Amino acid sequence: MVHGLRELVVQLNLFGSEFARTHGLxxxxxxxxxxxxxxxRAGRIATPGWLGQQLGLNSASTxxxxxxxxxxxxxxxxxxxxxxxRVKLQVTESAxxxxxxFFGPLIGxxxxxxxxxxxxxxxxxxxxxxxxxxxxENVRETGAGPVP
Length: 148
Fold this sequence. Notes:
Helix content: over 70%
Distance between the termini: 19 Å
Radius of gyration: 17 Å
CATH architecture of the domain at 2-102: Orthogonal Bundle
CATH superfamily of the domain at 2-102: Winged helix-like DNA-binding domain superfamily/Winged helix DNA-binding domain
Number of strands: 2
Shape: globular
Structural class: mainly alpha
């Protein structure tokens, strides 16, 4: 099961790298766009500091990344109306359309696969993924090696 999951992660990374290469982006650009889209879907305000934290980047690298995405018309910066010192990041409509044009077929087929599972099976899959994310986060945060 773990090897199958790793294989899936490798395939998804290759797919994302192909998208990046096709559109003249860095793989970090794609990860940033995904993080920003996920934030928007969750109703979370995305700031450059938040984005840098999500991607494991320092401030200078995050600024260069956001500058590059803004120059390419994929991200916009806007001042927070409640706190003018804070800058919010938004994925542009053209970035969303670009993403859907490439990832749409994959997402559509993935949803089709999910539709073939019962609600109980989906709950089990969701629990498995949540636990696996927790394991990865724990190992990243603690640097823990293999569990005996």
